[in-house]
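Private note to self, pasted from the team thread so I don't lose it. Backbone tokens:
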């Protein structure tokens, strides 16, 4: 009775105000939810429920990554290494490859930021504090700091007029040679000169800090020359010769204690060459040595491991058959390896599946970023195509990774959360003029965004109808509310009949 009296006192203006206010509030919630999703990739309401309500209800703390498989054993080391820009182990030759692309297309494949990083690398690898003692080294020290390519090449020729200089041959091989054969010829001359310098500095390395620095520089020069010679052999089709040279370099790298040698990542060159030979047993042996918990991961390591496991089942894999009979152990292992690889770098599958166009890889890459995905797919797409059914298995399974990791920027599964620094760095490394930088694959719209969108639309429609037809909508609202509160009226009438009238009056007064 009290409820009926209250409903009868409501006017159409009240319903107009009520529906309008509800529409406004739900619209503001929708706008905020959409802005938060565009910026952070998740719903604010879901984020609050996961971060604050779930721990109160006894759930798992989302800030703690799953380290059950031992992949993320060191938070600081992992986060630092993943946000670091690394030199691309398979970077192309500027004169013979990058410049030829520019001549044909008129586009610059390398950004200024990328080339500036290479200039810093060259100064680190090929110079030392005692270069002023030798005229050729002094000239080359200035050459590596020179920004103009023609000035660098002229300085290298000037140094060679004085004597055979390994770093001068390196510069000409990288930037002046227009074919791989000319590049190889110059690197062979660099090897002869560099080997002599290495042997001389090796005998004097313990005679003081100056000689130690010279020997470190000569070691870097020798390793760089041999690695680039091995890459020339690989590009010219002499793959077995390239594999032998790379194996020797890996042994040399493990024997030496200079930290800069680890930056070359020669094992990634070796893996690519072994895959070209289809020597999968040796590929597995290399992976067993380098796919270790204490070593930084890479797309080459993770996706090569996935390719080997996919190779065992991909030729007979069928999604329909698997759904009927269930997955075998080998298929589960292959799918888990693909999920692991996709979690490490989610950009690679679009290039391997040719859903996105490839460009020339940059000279530097950011691990787990678009730049690393391009560098990997550029050289390894052919190896995936060679394994029958591997790309089909990847196509059927890679998307499941994102369902396993609903909040990739806050929590990972096998690795630490996906670094938020990748997009910014990739825009510096990649030529965005003709390439759209890939970002972490966007989730589907969260439930609460869809819910608030529906709520906003519904309340907005009610507000419009109530404004246009206030009398009619008032009748509908009263009928709806009467029906809604009918059980409450029934309960109150029963309570009134049972309780004494004096007590009932006191309750109603309260």
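Design output:
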């Amino acid at each position: 009775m009290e409820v009926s009296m209250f409903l009868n006192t409501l006017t159409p203006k009240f319903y107009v105000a009520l529906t309008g206010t509800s529409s406004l509030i739900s619209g503001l919630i929708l706008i905020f939810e959409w802005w938060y999703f565009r910026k952070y990739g998740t719903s604010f309401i879901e984020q609050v429920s996961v971060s604050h309500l779930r721990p109160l209800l006894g759930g798992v703390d989302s800030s703690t990554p799953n380290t059950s498989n031992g992949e993320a054993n060191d938070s600081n080391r992992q986060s630092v290494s993943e946000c670091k820009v690394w030199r691309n182990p398979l970077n192309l030759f500027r004169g013979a490859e990058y410049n030829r692309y520019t001549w044909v297309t008129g586009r610059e494949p390398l950004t200024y930021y990328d080339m500036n990083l290479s200039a810093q690398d060259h100064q680190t690898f090929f110079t030392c504090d005692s270069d002023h003692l030798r005229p050729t080294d002094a000239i080359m020290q200035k050459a590596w700091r020179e920004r103009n390519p023609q000035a660098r090449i002229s300085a290298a020729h000037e140094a060679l007029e004085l004597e055979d200089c390994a770093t001068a041959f390196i510069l000409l091989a990288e930037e002046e040679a227009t074919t791989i054969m000319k590049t190889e010829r110059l690197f062979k001359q660099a090897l002869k000169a560099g080997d002599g310098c290495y042997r001389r500095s090796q005998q004097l390395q313990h005679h003081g800090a100056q000689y130690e620095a010279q020997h470190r520089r000569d070691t870097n020069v020798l390793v760089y020359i041999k690695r680039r010679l091995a890459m020339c052999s690989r590009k010219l089709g002499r793959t077995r010769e390239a594999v032998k040279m790379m194996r020797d370099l890996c042994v040399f790298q493990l024997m030496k204690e200079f930290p800069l040698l680890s930056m070359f990542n020669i094992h990634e060159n070796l893996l690519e060459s072994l895959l070209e030979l289809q020597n999968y047993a040796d590929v597995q042996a290399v992976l067993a040595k380098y796919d270790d918990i204490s070593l930084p991961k890479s797309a080459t390591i993770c996706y090569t491991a996935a390719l080997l496991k996919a190779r065992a089942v991909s030729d007979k894999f069928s999604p329909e058959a698997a759904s009927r009979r269930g997955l075998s152990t080998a298929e589960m292992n292959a799918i888990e390896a693909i999920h692991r690889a996709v979690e490490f770098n989610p950009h690679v599958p679009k290039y391997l599946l040719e859903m996105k166009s490839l460009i020339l890889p940059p000279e530097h890459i950011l691990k787990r970023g678009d730049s690393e995905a391009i560098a990997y797919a550029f050289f390894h797409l052919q190896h995936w195509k060679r394994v029958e059914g591997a790309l089909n298995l990847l196509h059927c399974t890679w998307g499941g990774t994102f369902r396993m990791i609903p909040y990739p920027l806050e929590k990972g599964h096998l690795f630490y959360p996906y670094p938020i620094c990748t997009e910014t760095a990739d825009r510096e490394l990649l030529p965005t003029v003709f390439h759209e930088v890939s970002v972490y694959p966007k989730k589907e719209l969260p439930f609460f965004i869809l819910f608030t969108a529906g709520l906003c639309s519904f309340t907005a429609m009610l507000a419009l109808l109530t404004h246009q037809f206030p009398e009619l909508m008032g009748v509908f609202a009263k009928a709806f509310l009467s029906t809604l509160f009918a059980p409450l009226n029934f309960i109150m009438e029963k309570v009134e009949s049972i309780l004494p009238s004096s007590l009932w009056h006191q309750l109603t007064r309260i």
